[in-house]
Amino acid sequence: MAHHDYDCVVVGAGVEGSATGYHLTITGHKTLLLEQFTLGHSKGSSHGQSRMIRYTYRQIHYANMMPECFQTWERLGGEVGTELYRKTGLLAVNGPPHQDYTLRSESLRVMGKPCELPTVGEICQRHPGFSFGPEHKAFVDPNGGVLRADSCLHALQTMFLKQGGVVKENEEVLEIVPGDPVLIVTSKGRYTAKSVVLTPGAWASKMLRPLGIDPPLKVTQLKVCYCPERQPGAFGNYPCFYYLSEKYETCGLPCDDHSGLFKVYNDHGDELQGPDQQNQAQHSHQIETLMSFIREHVPGLIPEPSLVEKCLYTSTPDKDIILDMHPDHPNIVIGCGFSGHGFKLAPAVGRILSELATGTTPSYDISPMSLKRFPNNGRLAAKV
C-alpha cells in the first residue's frame, strides 16, 4: 500500500472535517481529508439543502463564536461565487416558565446584537400562519436566517482543494496507531501525519473506543418534514422559528429549493444503537408529534408532509460538543457530539480543531467542550 506524509490527516469530510481542512490549508498545512463514503453523502448529519443560523444562543460560549461564523459563511460565498446565507430573521417562541426566552434574548443584548420584542399577538397578526396563545413570550433575532447547507459543504471542499488540500473519498479508516507521527491505516492505504483530527460524526464511538476514549454519545435519527402551505406563497416572507414549551421543541424554516413547502422538525429523534442501523428505525411517532404541533401552532401549513428526510444527531448528555485533544496522545484531536449545534458553528469549530492540530492556542475558550467534564477524561472504562 502507498505511503504518504502529511502535516495533518482529517478523518470525516462532513461540514466539521471540511471546515477543519479549510482552515488548515489557509495556514499552509499539507492536509489530507478522508471520507468513508462519497463526498456529500446522505448517511450522516451534513447533507440537505438548508440549516438554520442565528446569533442567539443560551450558551454564551457558542454565542461568542457566531460573529465569526456569519463572517466566514459570507466570505466563503464570495470566494466560490454562491450565496450561502439568506437573511429571514429568527422567531423564538417560548412557553412558561420562559427561561429559554430570557437566556436567549439576553445573549443578544450581551453581544450588542439587535433583538426585537413583539407580543405574540403582533407576531400572529404579522404572520397569520402562526398561532400562539398569550401565555407565550417571543423575540426576533433579525439576523437569523437560512444556510444553503449542500452549497456550504461544497464551498468548503472546493476551497480546501483550491488551497492545496487532498481529498480521498470511499476510503474507510481501519486503524489509527498513536505515535509521532501518527499512522492512519485505511481500506486503500497507509498514511503518516504529524497530527490527526477525528470528525467522524455518528461513527465517533466506533473510532474512539480502539483509542481508549469513550465519551457518552447518543446517536438519534430525526425525521425532517416538508409541509405544504394552505395558500401557496403565504410563507414566502416568514422567518425561521424555534419553539419550546413543556410539550414541544420544534424548529421550522423556509425552503428555497422546495417551492410551496416549509421545513419543520423536532429536536428529539429516535435513539439508534449505531449509525448503520438507521434504515431499520421506525419514526412514525416523531411525525405524529410534529403534525400535532403544526395543527396547534402553524395552521397555515397542512399537517401532512409532502416530503420526509432523515438526519442523524450525535449528542452528549449536557448537549455541549466535544473539542479536545486525546488525553494521552495530544497529536490526536477529537471533534464530535455536536448535539444539533454543528452546522452553523462549523467555521469556528474548524478553526479551533485546526489550532489544536497545529499546537496553536485556540481562539476561543473551549473548556466547556473539554473531555475533562467526563469521568476519567472520557477514557474507556477499565474492564473488571
Walkthrough of the structure:
This protein is α+β, with helices and mostly antiparallel strands. The chain is built from 9 helices and 19 strands. Helix 1 (15-26) runs parallel beside helix 6 (149-162) and helix 3 (66-80) packs across helix 6 (149-162). It is globular, with a radius of gyration of 21 Å. The mean pLDDT is 94. Its cofactor is FAD. This is FAD dependent oxidoreductase domain-containing protein. Belongs to the MSOX/MTOX family.
Produce a short descriptive summary.
The chain has nine helices and 19 strands. The chain has helices at residues 15-26, 60-63, 66-80, 99-111, 120-126, 149-162, 204-208, 284-297, 342-357; strands at 3-11, 31-34, 51-53, 85-87, 90-94, 137-141, 145-147, 166-168, 173-177, 182-186, 190-198, 218-228, 240-244, 249-254, 261-266, 270-272, 307-315, 322-325, 332-336. Its cofactor is FAD.
Question: What's the structural blueprint in terms of helices and strands?
Answer:
Elements: E1 3-11, H1 15-26, E2 31-34, E3 51-53, H2 60-63, H3 66-80, E4 85-87, E5 90-94, H4 99-111, H5 120-126, E6 137-141, E7 145-147, H6 149-162, E8 166-168, E9 173-177, E10 182-186, E11 190-198, H7 204-208, E12 218-228, E13 240-244, E14 249-254, E15 261-266, E16 270-272, H8 284-297, E17 307-315, E18 322-325, E19 332-336, H9 342-357
Parallel strand pairs: 1-2, 1-11, 2-8, 5-13, 11-19
Antiparallel strand pairs: 3-7, 4-7, 5-6, 9-10, 10-11, 12-15, 12-16, 12-17, 13-14, 14-15, 18-19
Helix pairs in contact: 1-6, 1-9, 3-6, 3-9
